[in-house]
Fold:
Amino acid sequence: MSMRKRIVVLISGRGSNMTALIAAASNPDYPAEIVGVISDRANAAGLGIAAARGIATKVISRADYSSKEAHDGAIDAALVSFGAEIVALAGYMRILGARFVEKWLGRMINIHPALLPAFKGLDTHARAIRAGIRIHGCTVHFVTLDMDDGPIIAQAAVPVMVGDNEDMLAARVLKAEHRLYPLALGLVAEGKARMEGGRTVLAHFADDADNSTSVVMAPDPLREETDLEHLARITP
Structure:
């Protein structure tokens, strides 16, 4: 009998993070399997990607329900029908109601394109550039009642390069997201990351020792262009 956790992914669009999770789950040693994908939009590109990989999909459009509560209820019913144990939000663009969130508390995770608690909400990359920060990134967190406010599971940082525009920074962060989300989901599926008392507890988990010495710097002074004329003046 398989011990892999059953995961259902909620999407609204292209599903690039969903695709990264599906790729990770294709390894039989990965502790989770993607058993279903739900979208609130029938034209979400991710639906076709999931279907092509043999994963069951379902469209649950808000327009088909009389209220937000009814829409949430339909999503919950679909999750139950899939036998979901963990819910992974991957670019799902609707805020879920309190009753739904409370039911799945500690079993629902999300990825956000910023280093929380900074830049909650939308337009994170443009806001980061306007703020002049030099380090940006992404966060996987447990979903709670307040948007982008749940306990942090894992984060990845990238430099903001001189001359970056929003699209360039977004592309760099997205690559980090595709590495981070499978790692974080794996930790939750294995029980190595769990939510307790409003915090994330890591247990039975050995971090990579190299992480203790890794540094992201931007601009990186070690990669500055060498001024050969200046070196000639100061070199005996």
Remarks:
- The CA atoms of residues 72 and 97 lie 7 Å apart.
- The domain at 1-104 is CATH 3.40.50.170 (Rossmann fold).
- The first strand starts at residue 5 and ends at 11.
- The chain has seven helices and nine strands.
